[in-house]
Amino acid sequence: MKVDRTELTWWERLYLPTLLNGFKVTLRHFFSWKRSEVYGDKQKNYSAKTTMQYPEEKWDVPTGYRGAPYLVKDVDDKTKCVSCQLCEFVCPPRAIRITPPGDSGVVDREGAEKMPKEFEIDMLRCIYCGYCQEVCPEEAIYLLKDNAITGESREELVYDMKKLLALGGADKRAYDHHVQDGVSDGIKKWETKTREAREQPKFH
Amino acid sequence: MQTEPAVETVTVKVDGRAVEVPRTTPNWQGNPEPTTVLQACKHAGIEIPHYCYHPKLPVAGNCRMCLVHVAMPGRPGPDGKPPMSEDGTPKVFPMQLPYEPGTPRGVIGCATGIIPGMEIYASSPETREMREAVLESLLINHPLDCSICDQAGECKLQEYSVEHGQPESRFAEVKVHKPKAVDLGPRITLDAERCVMCTRCIRFTADVAGDDALGIVNRGSYNAISTYPGQPFDNNYTLNTVDICPVGALTSDDFRFQMRVWFLKETKSLCTGCGTGCNTVIGSRENKMYRYEPRRNNAVNSDWMCDAGRLDYKWIGREDRLTKLRGPKGDITWPSALQEISGHLANAAEGSVAVVTSARQTNEELFLLKKLAKRYKALTDAVPRKGEADHLLVAGDRNPNTTGAQLTGITTKRVGSRLAAIAKGIASGKITTLIVFGEDVTQHGIDATLLGTLKLLIVSDILPNATTKKANYLLPGCAHAEKRGTFTNVKGRVQKFTKAFEAPGDAMPEWEVLHELVHAVTGLDGFNSIEGLFNQMAGEVKAFKAAGLTWASLGDKGADVKL
Ligand code: SF4
Ligand code: SF4
Ligand code: SF4
Ligand code: SF4
Ligand code: FES
User: Fold this and answer.
1) ipTM of this model?
2) Are residues A38 and A76 in the same domain?
3) For labelling alongside B274, which of A45, A122, B389, B531 has CA 20 to 30 A away?
4) Do A81 and A162 fall into the same domain?
5) Domain range spanning residue A35?
6) Would you list which residues of chain B are within 8 Å, Cβ to Cβ, of chain A?
7) ∠ CA B153-B232-B157 to the nearest 5 degrees?
């Protein structure tokens, strides 16, 4: 294919004006008071400056961003995951590994009967697809906003259940969503069931 | 060639297609009974959803899941001719409610016999509506526990709901809650909420296991499966109810919350608990075995297996499994171990070798051991294991392959009768080399001091014991789940099992090791594939030869040999 080369005008061939034009853009940004979309709220305090002190400072990613998957706890700070292992099954790169609890169930709340004995996500394997969040019947796993997952060894980047629960924290997000829908305790279905069972007439 | 007796057939229409089906079908006891609508549809390749029907249980007809709409041919008129439609074909009358003409009436497919000329509408809108209604009523009080329910993934309620149910519940009231995690017996946990009241468990334990232990208590939506107060559900066949329970109401304590079923790889295998050789399926994931389930074989175990056999698999994954190959000077590799052993054996004199093997080794292994023994005119024997036989499956012989040991000539009718002679031979110094496969001989008259006087003790085993401690060469072996082979059961049925997962560490299938040894010591050429080895054995062992066995002809269900 033949590429047509357009002749430069004499003004362009001068070179210096174009260079100065570049400086102008830089200076305009340097003195700009206009907020950039990307930096969002963080910019409030540094309005005159576009350089962000990463990684000490991090920008706020928009809602819906798919960051690292973490386990969330319910509003009472109890484990929501019931070890159904659907996320482990659906995860395309097999980043999730769950150890089921065995006969005893080991639960930290009433009615749910079981929760995982161990739950690991290999952050090096995770591709942030969000399938785990989508498949979870208990709304127990969410892709939160963390996006710079670094570490010094492979082992360190396999997050265990304790770490995942700590990072996920109590689940305000799903809870608020349910309250909006008018089912204040829909999110605590196992507790609700247990309460209903207790309230019904006894029979044997 | 012998011709099969002609099967009397009946022609019915399933979804507009004429199919010819046998007039009778064996019932749960194997006696002929009129073929039902459900079975006729099966012949036509259409599954009618069902809960309470089970081919190996008496028909109860209580769940109504199998409702189908059918049309019957008319009764013959006074002229003896059936009513005809205009185009000259016999007229059929779609069934309708007698008190509400025009409303289609269903019949239960599991208990309605077919009649010639009948039309079955297995997937008509009327039938679909009936199924939808049945499922809706079953789900009214169902807890929808799927995320914590062990049955999820193999649950008929899940499957039928997806296939035939409604997408959403119309039930707005509070559900009736029934007892959860009820300890029904030492091996079974009941979740009463999930039960669909099909009574399969009740019929199984009363009619098949012969222990009338279960029943339904309470009325209406409060009814629940229960045992007699204070009487645990405890016979040797209880876990079969977990298999046949179509939902997650009955769960096995052993398997409860261990692994989701969709992760389990299924491998056809055999139970090694006794001489019956129940056909099984191993459920495993990543080299770990999670459960046995019985596999249908009408010639052996029907659809069942005993609890003791089912739970007899834990040893396979035990922590102290023998995983290291060991020679006189410590760790060694297979090629050098085999070379050294063959070197020792090559110099052994006739009569100076004895073989004690377990009747838990496979036919192929016993066949190879016998070949090795022949070279030295060695005394061979197996160790008997006796228990009590029961009325259903359990055999008195607790070794899975005593018959194989007898047919290959390792032992005689009186298993273990030569053990004393072997012990005497060692004591007198005549026997200087002992080959032990899979038994702790110190428990059977050849004690540790006696073993100490041997020049060479070669032991293959799976778990450590007093004999393996004394071994000069310790060859870690494989469980049946880790290799391929065949067993011959007490009635002479030769059945094969396949490999489910890898053996730990250095462990190698014994037949592979023996194949190498036999080749090196006797110079006889053998086959290094299990198929070839089996076919060679079938050509040399008399009983197998008479039955014309080949590896391929065994199939999944095995073949009988005359004893
Ligand atoms: S986000 Fe995707 S890759 Fe990551 S753990 Fe979830 S399912 Fe697996
Ligand atoms: S899908 Fe949800 S409830 Fe199930 S194991 Fe994963 S996180 Fe736990
Ligand atoms: S019985 Fe079936 S439908 Fe009911 S909770 Fe268990 S898996 Fe789900
Ligand atoms: S426990 Fe299972 S097998 Fe027994 S009646 Fe209920 S659903 Fe049927
Ligand atoms: S299967 Fe026919 S009524 Fe249950």
Assistant:
1) 0.88
2) no
3) B531
4) yes
5) 16-52
6) 143, 145-148, 152, 174-177, 179-181, 217-218, 222, 253-254, 256-260, 262-263
7) 20
